[in-house]
Amino acid sequence: MFDENFQKNYSMTTVHKAIQLLRVFTRDEKKLSLTELHKKTGIGKSSLQRLLSTLVHERFLMKDEATKLYSLGIELFFLGNLVEKNDAFLSVAIPVMEKLNQSTKENISISLMDQNERRCIHNLASHHELSALTYIGNTSPLYAGASAKVLLAFQSDDFIRKYLNETEFKRITDSTITSADDLIEDLGKIRKRGYAISYGERVKGAISISAPISNRFKEVFADLTITFPSVREEEYNLEKFTEDLLDGTAEIERNMKS
Protein backbone atom coordinates (compact mmCIF):
# COMPACT_ATOMS: atom_id res chain seq x y z
CA MET A 1 0.00 0.00 0.00
CA PHE A 2 1.31 3.46 -0.88
CA ASP A 3 1.74 5.80 2.09
CA GLU A 4 -0.20 9.07 2.35
CA ASN A 5 2.67 11.29 1.23
CA PHE A 6 3.25 9.17 -1.87
CA GLN A 7 -0.43 9.35 -2.82
CA LYS A 8 -0.37 13.11 -2.30
CA ASN A 9 2.64 13.68 -4.52
CA TYR A 10 1.92 11.05 -7.17
CA SER A 11 1.27 12.42 -10.66
CA MET A 12 2.15 11.71 -14.27
CA THR A 13 4.64 14.59 -14.04
CA THR A 14 6.41 12.82 -11.20
CA VAL A 15 6.65 9.62 -13.21
CA HIS A 16 8.03 11.57 -16.15
CA LYS A 17 10.67 13.18 -13.94
CA ALA A 18 11.65 9.80 -12.48
CA ILE A 19 12.16 8.34 -15.95
CA GLN A 20 14.10 11.44 -17.02
CA LEU A 21 16.30 11.00 -13.97
CA LEU A 22 17.08 7.35 -14.70
CA ARG A 23 17.98 8.14 -18.31
CA VAL A 24 20.66 10.63 -17.27
CA PHE A 25 23.03 7.80 -16.29
CA THR A 26 25.25 6.52 -19.11
CA ARG A 27 28.10 4.10 -19.60
CA ASP A 28 30.52 7.02 -19.26
CA GLU A 29 28.71 8.62 -16.31
CA LYS A 30 27.69 5.76 -14.07
CA LYS A 31 27.89 7.71 -10.81
CA LEU A 32 26.48 11.20 -10.34
CA SER A 33 26.07 13.59 -7.43
CA LEU A 34 22.91 15.45 -6.43
CA THR A 35 24.34 18.64 -7.93
CA GLU A 36 25.20 16.92 -11.23
CA LEU A 37 21.75 15.35 -11.44
CA HIS A 38 20.16 18.74 -10.78
CA LYS A 39 22.19 20.34 -13.59
CA LYS A 40 21.45 17.56 -16.06
CA THR A 41 17.70 17.28 -15.41
CA GLY A 42 16.73 20.77 -14.32
CA ILE A 43 14.56 19.22 -11.59
CA GLY A 44 14.40 21.39 -8.45
CA LYS A 45 16.60 20.11 -5.65
CA SER A 46 13.73 19.59 -3.21
CA SER A 47 11.72 17.53 -5.70
CA LEU A 48 14.89 15.80 -6.87
CA GLN A 49 15.79 14.68 -3.35
CA ARG A 50 12.32 13.14 -2.88
CA LEU A 51 12.62 11.32 -6.21
CA LEU A 52 16.09 10.04 -5.35
CA SER A 53 14.97 8.79 -1.94
CA THR A 54 12.05 6.92 -3.52
CA LEU A 55 14.18 5.36 -6.27
CA VAL A 56 16.84 4.31 -3.76
CA HIS A 57 14.15 2.79 -1.51
CA GLU A 58 12.76 0.82 -4.47
CA ARG A 59 16.30 -0.22 -5.53
CA PHE A 60 16.15 1.51 -8.91
CA LEU A 61 19.06 3.62 -7.71
CA MET A 62 21.89 3.02 -5.25
CA LYS A 63 23.49 5.68 -3.06
CA ASP A 64 27.07 5.45 -1.83
CA GLU A 65 26.84 7.03 1.62
CA ALA A 66 30.59 7.67 1.70
CA THR A 67 30.80 9.60 -1.60
CA LYS A 68 27.13 10.71 -1.79
CA LEU A 69 27.08 9.53 -5.41
CA TYR A 70 24.09 7.83 -7.05
CA SER A 71 24.18 4.97 -9.57
CA LEU A 72 21.64 2.68 -11.25
CA GLY A 73 20.29 -0.02 -8.96
CA ILE A 74 19.93 -3.78 -9.01
CA GLU A 75 16.18 -3.66 -9.70
CA LEU A 76 16.86 -2.39 -13.23
CA PHE A 77 19.14 -5.36 -13.82
CA PHE A 78 16.38 -7.79 -12.83
CA LEU A 79 13.78 -5.99 -14.94
CA GLY A 80 16.15 -5.91 -17.91
CA ASN A 81 16.66 -9.65 -17.69
CA LEU A 82 12.91 -10.15 -17.40
CA VAL A 83 12.30 -8.15 -20.59
CA GLU A 84 15.04 -10.00 -22.49
CA LYS A 85 13.79 -13.44 -21.48
CA ASN A 86 10.10 -12.85 -22.07
CA ASP A 87 9.92 -10.44 -24.95
CA ALA A 88 8.67 -12.39 -27.94
CA PHE A 89 10.43 -10.17 -30.43
CA LEU A 90 13.88 -10.53 -28.89
CA SER A 91 13.42 -14.27 -28.48
CA VAL A 92 12.97 -14.46 -32.26
CA ALA A 93 15.61 -11.88 -33.16
CA ILE A 94 18.52 -12.95 -30.97
CA PRO A 95 19.18 -16.33 -32.69
CA VAL A 96 19.37 -14.50 -36.04
CA MET A 97 21.72 -11.93 -34.51
CA GLU A 98 23.94 -14.71 -33.18
CA LYS A 99 24.23 -16.29 -36.63
CA LEU A 100 25.17 -12.95 -38.19
CA ASN A 101 27.65 -12.27 -35.42
CA GLN A 102 29.34 -15.61 -36.04
CA SER A 103 29.42 -15.25 -39.85
CA THR A 104 30.59 -11.61 -39.97
CA LYS A 105 32.57 -11.50 -36.70
CA GLU A 106 31.32 -7.92 -36.41
CA ASN A 107 29.03 -5.92 -34.14
CA ILE A 108 25.35 -6.81 -34.59
CA SER A 109 22.61 -4.69 -33.05
CA ILE A 110 18.88 -4.37 -33.09
CA SER A 111 17.06 -1.09 -32.54
CA LEU A 112 13.57 0.32 -32.20
CA MET A 113 12.15 3.76 -32.85
CA ASP A 114 11.52 5.45 -29.50
CA GLN A 115 9.50 8.57 -30.25
CA ASN A 116 11.86 10.61 -32.45
CA GLU A 117 15.00 8.63 -31.68
CA ARG A 118 16.58 5.31 -32.51
CA ARG A 119 17.24 3.22 -29.41
CA CYS A 120 19.39 0.07 -29.33
CA ILE A 121 17.69 -2.75 -27.41
CA HIS A 122 20.20 -5.57 -27.95
CA ASN A 123 23.78 -5.85 -29.12
CA LEU A 124 26.34 -8.57 -29.82
CA ALA A 125 29.94 -7.34 -29.79
CA SER A 126 32.50 -7.76 -32.55
CA HIS A 127 35.01 -10.60 -32.26
CA HIS A 128 37.82 -8.17 -33.06
CA GLU A 129 39.80 -6.03 -30.63
CA LEU A 130 39.21 -3.00 -32.85
CA SER A 131 35.45 -2.62 -33.09
CA ALA A 132 32.68 -0.09 -33.60
CA LEU A 133 30.73 -0.45 -30.38
CA THR A 134 27.00 -0.05 -29.92
CA TYR A 135 25.51 -0.15 -26.42
CA ILE A 136 22.09 -1.26 -25.25
CA GLY A 137 20.08 1.87 -24.52
CA ASN A 138 22.20 3.98 -26.86
CA THR A 139 20.15 6.52 -28.81
CA SER A 140 20.63 8.71 -31.86
CA PRO A 141 18.50 11.18 -33.84
CA LEU A 142 16.66 9.70 -36.80
CA TYR A 143 18.72 11.64 -39.35
CA ALA A 144 22.11 10.25 -38.28
CA GLY A 145 23.38 6.80 -39.23
CA ALA A 146 22.03 3.81 -41.13
CA SER A 147 20.13 2.32 -38.20
CA ALA A 148 18.27 5.55 -37.53
CA LYS A 149 17.59 6.50 -41.15
CA VAL A 150 16.25 3.08 -42.11
CA LEU A 151 13.63 3.46 -39.37
CA LEU A 152 12.68 6.93 -40.58
CA ALA A 153 12.68 6.04 -44.28
CA PHE A 154 9.85 3.53 -43.98
CA GLN A 155 7.52 5.70 -41.92
CA SER A 156 4.57 7.44 -43.56
CA ASP A 157 5.16 10.58 -45.60
CA ASP A 158 3.10 12.54 -43.04
CA PHE A 159 5.33 11.32 -40.22
CA ILE A 160 8.48 12.26 -42.12
CA ARG A 161 7.16 15.73 -42.98
CA LYS A 162 6.24 16.37 -39.35
CA TYR A 163 9.64 15.10 -38.19
CA LEU A 164 11.48 17.37 -40.62
CA ASN A 165 9.43 20.39 -39.57
CA GLU A 166 10.14 19.80 -35.88
CA THR A 167 13.79 18.71 -36.06
CA GLU A 168 16.84 20.89 -35.60
CA PHE A 169 19.72 19.20 -37.40
CA LYS A 170 22.98 19.10 -35.45
CA ARG A 171 26.29 17.97 -36.89
CA ILE A 172 27.62 14.94 -34.99
CA THR A 173 30.54 14.21 -37.34
CA ASP A 174 31.75 15.74 -40.60
CA SER A 175 29.57 13.18 -42.44
CA THR A 176 26.29 13.87 -40.63
CA ILE A 177 23.42 15.00 -42.84
CA THR A 178 22.31 18.46 -41.73
CA SER A 179 19.98 19.41 -44.59
CA ALA A 180 16.33 18.40 -44.85
CA ASP A 181 16.60 18.23 -48.66
CA ASP A 182 19.66 15.94 -48.48
CA LEU A 183 17.91 13.73 -45.94
CA ILE A 184 14.76 13.42 -48.09
CA GLU A 185 16.90 12.39 -51.05
CA ASP A 186 18.73 9.81 -48.95
CA LEU A 187 15.50 8.41 -47.49
CA GLY A 188 14.18 7.93 -51.03
CA LYS A 189 17.26 5.88 -51.95
CA ILE A 190 16.88 3.78 -48.79
CA ARG A 191 13.24 3.02 -49.59
CA LYS A 192 14.14 2.05 -53.15
CA ARG A 193 16.94 -0.40 -52.28
CA GLY A 194 15.41 -1.68 -49.04
CA TYR A 195 18.33 -1.01 -46.69
CA ALA A 196 20.62 1.80 -45.50
CA ILE A 197 24.39 2.16 -45.38
CA SER A 198 26.28 4.97 -43.67
CA TYR A 199 29.90 6.01 -43.41
CA GLY A 200 30.81 7.75 -40.18
CA GLU A 201 27.61 9.77 -39.87
CA ARG A 202 27.28 9.22 -36.12
CA VAL A 203 30.63 7.67 -35.14
CA LYS A 204 33.69 8.71 -37.11
CA GLY A 205 35.40 5.76 -38.79
CA ALA A 206 32.40 3.41 -38.46
CA ILE A 207 30.41 1.84 -41.30
CA SER A 208 26.88 0.57 -40.69
CA ILE A 209 24.51 -1.45 -42.85
CA SER A 210 20.94 -1.61 -41.61
CA ALA A 211 17.75 -3.31 -42.80
CA PRO A 212 14.17 -2.70 -41.62
CA ILE A 213 11.98 -5.18 -39.73
CA SER A 214 8.20 -5.04 -40.22
CA ASN A 215 5.39 -6.33 -38.04
CA ARG A 216 2.43 -8.32 -39.35
CA PHE A 217 0.75 -5.05 -40.39
CA LYS A 218 3.72 -4.26 -42.67
CA GLU A 219 4.80 -1.41 -40.37
CA VAL A 220 8.54 -0.91 -39.86
CA PHE A 221 9.19 -0.80 -36.12
CA ALA A 222 12.78 -2.11 -35.77
CA ASP A 223 16.00 -2.70 -37.65
CA LEU A 224 18.93 -5.09 -37.73
CA THR A 225 22.40 -3.59 -38.18
CA ILE A 226 25.98 -4.66 -38.88
CA THR A 227 28.60 -2.13 -37.73
CA PHE A 228 32.36 -2.29 -38.26
CA PRO A 229 35.40 0.02 -38.51
CA SER A 230 36.09 1.48 -41.95
CA VAL A 231 39.68 0.18 -41.82
CA ARG A 232 38.29 -3.33 -42.46
CA GLU A 233 36.05 -2.34 -45.38
CA GLU A 234 38.45 -3.67 -48.04
CA GLU A 235 38.50 -7.08 -46.35
CA TYR A 236 34.77 -7.55 -46.78
CA ASN A 237 32.25 -8.17 -49.52
CA LEU A 238 29.63 -5.59 -48.55
CA GLU A 239 27.11 -7.09 -50.99
CA LYS A 240 27.39 -10.40 -49.13
CA PHE A 241 27.00 -8.62 -45.79
CA THR A 242 23.88 -6.91 -47.11
CA GLU A 243 22.41 -10.15 -48.48
CA ASP A 244 22.98 -11.90 -45.16
CA LEU A 245 21.44 -8.94 -43.32
CA LEU A 246 18.31 -8.96 -45.51
CA ASP A 247 18.03 -12.74 -45.11
CA GLY A 248 18.21 -12.17 -41.35
CA THR A 249 15.40 -9.62 -41.26
CA ALA A 250 13.26 -11.85 -43.48
CA GLU A 251 13.82 -14.75 -41.08
CA ILE A 252 12.85 -12.62 -38.10
CA GLU A 253 9.66 -11.50 -39.82
CA ARG A 254 8.74 -15.09 -40.77
CA ASN A 255 9.31 -16.37 -37.26
CA MET A 256 7.28 -13.54 -35.75
CA LYS A 257 4.27 -14.73 -37.74
CA SER A 258 4.63 -18.42 -36.85
Structural features, described:
This protein is an alpha+beta fold. It has two domains: 4-73, Winged helix-like DNA-binding domain superfamily/Winged helix DNA-binding domain (Arc Repressor Mutant, subunit A); 87-257, 2-Layer Sandwich (Beta-Lactamase), CATH 3.30.450.40. It is built from ten helices and eight strands. It has helices at 4-9, 12-23, 34-41, 45-57, 74-86, 88-104, 146-153, 157-166, 180-193, 238-257; strands at residues 61-64, 69-72, 107-114, 117-124, 139-141, 196-199, 206-214, 220-229. The strands form two sheets. A six-stranded antiparallel sheet has the order 5-4-3-8-7-6, with helices on both faces. It has a two-stranded antiparallel ribbon with strand order 1-2. A hairpin with a 6-residue loop joins strand 6 and strand 7. Helix 6 runs antiparallel to helix 10 and helix 7 (146-153) packs across helix 9. The longest helix has 20 residues, at 238-257. The N and C termini lie far apart (41 Å). 26% of the residues are buried. The model is unreliable at 1-10 (pLDDT under 50).
